Amino acid sequence: MSFTTLIWEQVINSTVEKVWDFIATPKNLSVITPDYMGFNIISKELPDKMYEGLIIAYKVKPLLGIQLTWVSEIVCIKEFHYFIDEQKIGPYKFWHHTHIITPVENGVLMKDILNYKPPLSFIGSVLNQIVIKKKLYEIFAYRRKKIEEIFR
Predict the structure, then answer these.
(1) What is the value of pTM for the model shown?
(2) CATH number of the domain within which 143 lies
(3) Starting from the edge strand earliest in sequence, which strands make up the sheet with 107-117, in order?
């Protein structure tokens, strides 16, 4: 079974406070998710700002247009520095995503560290090399572009 770590970094021309305000707002996840993923938050009474222990449920079509329920929990948060979300229900056997923001000379360095294990043992490992990893890079490239547009 494959366990994969992917890392993305992006410098944003803004302040830590403005970037945090955007990434710590749960509804903004739909803004930075490609339309073809059919992302739809189904949690009732979603708060304006995330907090440790927050559970967010949504529908998503990660591959082949198949709609799945995905439930994430914000397991750790340090305001203006980082937060970690983990999949509780969803397509992956394991999903742990750390979002870090750090002030730098040109603005803010946003770093995503994703650790995941696909489902289906050996078949999942093969699919990871052929499809899943490429799809994740595509999604995060879309996010990078959207973040650049938002913080122009």
Answers:
(1) 0.93
(2) 3.30.530.20
(3) 4-12, 107-117, 94-104, 82-89, 68-78, 55-60, 40-41
For residue 1, name the pLDDT band (cuts at 50, 70, 90): low
4 phi and psi angles, rounded to 5 deg: -120, 140
- Domain coverage including residue 92: 4-150
Q: Angle at Cα 134 formed by Cα 130 and Cα 140, nearest 5°?
A: 165
CB atoms within 10 A of CB 111: 14
Using the predicted structure, report yes or no on whether residue 149 has a pLDDT greater than 90.
Answer: yes
Question: How many structural domains compose the chain?
Answer: 1
**Nearest partner of 12 among 99, 139, 84, judged by Cα:** 99
| Average pLDDT score, the chain | 94
Amino acid at 78: K
E strands along the chain, which residues? Answer: 4-12, 40-41, 55-60, 68-78, 82-89, 94-104, 107-117
Measured CA to CA, the distance from residue 123 to residue 84 in angstroms comes to: 28
